[in-house]
């Protein structure tokens, strides 16, 4: 009897070991829970868990997500084929006193300080460049409708601060913006794709009297409302216009940047802009590809490890593209010469106001 029971136990344990065996091409992490394509990625799973629970308030698509995504851009775009800069190397964190003083980086110091404090508190040993890109990718995964961004591990520490004047500003002309991006290796379509980040963004310092003002009516959802609402005729609301870089917004409580308004109407970018209006899959795909390219600026991808499997899978978006309540297709300022603006229906009821994004 005993030998049969022991044999059964051995078989059960063997079955358990087989069940926990790593799938082909993957390694089992020491935590006994996760598997990874490379053992180096195993150390990231607990960092992702604590980012979600502590830094992003249990998985919210809120202010810390918005600012972390913004930081990935402000750090990485510090790269130029003609002027230098290390790109996505974390220099904005290491050389904070220099780079956060740049005019275009106004307000970035808050998220830099928050991330530095988080790194220190949790004894995280990632390089600054890796942590900034990891936090941005994890944060975006909390926004319904977002693509699952890719993440590569192994960026070395930065050697110097980025040169000034490499970050585009909201009052720059379309020509100046496209030229700056071209000097970093991006074409006009990729510029528009990167601006999908504005669908989960808000401004604090463009007009300091109205902090947390979102760029579309759904700042907690990665959807195409930003591309729709930016093409609507603007209405001047007291207290929300008149500052450099800001123009009239179509909805009360919403901000429209001058650069966004002009890119939505410029013949070099208007058709790509319009293509995202009713094609969520295309917007996701284009944004994901452009973000990967951004995250690798200044880096040699062959020296990095693909740890994309540590990034959580975002929830799907359920809302369909729509016009805001109180508007119609007559309010759309069509700009693409090659295809008509998609037919959309408006939300029922009178025009409403967009609530600000609450501070973290």
Helix content: 25-40%
Oligomer: single chain
Number of domains: 2
Task: Could you tell me the CATH topology label of the largest domain.
Answer: Peroxidase, domain 1
Instruction: Based on Cα principal axes, name the global outline.
Output: globular
Span between N and C termini? 63 Å
Order of helices and strands: HEEHHHHHHEHHEEHEEHHHE
The CATH architecture category of the largest domain equals Orthogonal Bundle
Strand order of the largest sheet: 1-2
How many β-strand runs?
A: 8
Strand count, sense and closure of the main sheet? 2 strands, antiparallel
Hey, roughly how much beta strand do the residues contain?
Answer: under 5%
- What structural class is derived from the secondary structure elements? mainly alpha
Parts with pLDDT < 50 across at least 5 consecutive residues: 1-19, 238-242
CATH class bucket of the largest domain: Mainly Alpha
Alpha-carbon Rg, integer: 23 Å
Question: What is the residue-mean pLDDT, rounded to a whole number?
Answer: 89
Task: Output the number of helix runs.
Answer: 13
GO cellular component, one term: extracellular region
Binding site for heme b: 198
Binding site for Ca(2+) 2: 199, 216, 218, 223
Cofactor: Ca(2+); heme b
